[in-house]
Amino acid sequence: MKTKYTDKILKFVAGTMSKEAFYKWQLKQPLLEQAEILRALKTEMEAYHKKRNSTAFDSKKFETEIDAFEDLVLTHKLSIEMLSIEKESAKTQQQKLMEDLVRMRAATLFLFIHKKAPIALLMETAEKLIATEKQFDMYDPENWKEMF
Predict the structure, then answer these.
(1) Does the pTM of the predicted model rise above 0.85?
(2) CA–CA distance from 135 to each of 82, 93, 129 (Å)?
(3) Which is nearest to 12 in space by CA: 38, 50, 51?
(4) How far, in whole angstroms, is CA 29 from its chain's centroid?
(5) Residue 148, pLDDT score
(6) pLDDT tens-place string over residues 52-108
(7) Which of 147, 103, 99 is nearest to 124 (CA)?
(8) End-to-end Cα separation, the chain, in angstroms
(9) What number of other Cβ atoms are within 10 A of residue 7's Cβ?
């Protein structure tokens, strides 16, 4: 079965391409396609050794190694995707926290301006909110000018 990699693989099997050149070429191919390249190489190596009645090539061992490589590639890709999802989730949670801080600031200022709660409690709340705003790099003294 001819693949888009067959020509390069046949050059390698025939000895007209060095191991180093083949390896460098393979590494330039998309990561998800490298297992396909190795399987095509396995097929050509089997044919090469069959023509020569050679048993030097361990096809089963090579297939096991290809499977292990493919598992690693897929695990790597899955890990990258999961990291991306986690980053997006963290970003969404941070945005929600920021929105909550804005609402809590507005409520604290409203209570302060309209004298609806004890000043000491409002000052303590304001200090905690300001510390949290600073932690998330969203503190602006202008937001608190009515209180301080």
Answers:
(1) no
(2) 26, 15, 10
(3) 38
(4) 19
(5) 77
(6) 998 889 999 999 999 999 999 999 999 999 999 999 999 999 999 999 999 999 999
(7) 147
(8) 78
(9) 11
Distance CA(90)–CA(60), nearest Å, equals 44
Among 129, 95, 92, 90, CA closest to 109:
129
CA distance 122 to 16: 81
Copy the structure tokens of residue 16: 């007209």
Query: Which tokens go with 112?
Result: 């302060």
The structure tokens listed for 28 are 């330039």
Residue type at position 100: D
Please list the alpha-helical segments (H only) found in 52-143: 59-113, 119-135
**Is 126 within 8 Å of 108 (Cβ atoms)?**
yes
Map tokens 């191919």 to a residue: 29
Whole-angstrom distance, CA of residue 109 vs CA of residue 129: 11
Taking only the tens place, the pLDDT of each residue in 28-56 is 999 989 999 999 999 999 999 999 998 88
Contacts of 76 (CB under 8 A, 6+ apart): 31
pLDDT of residue 2: 82
Query: 114: exposed, middle or buried (C-beta count within 10 Å: 0-12, 13-18, 19+)?
Result: exposed
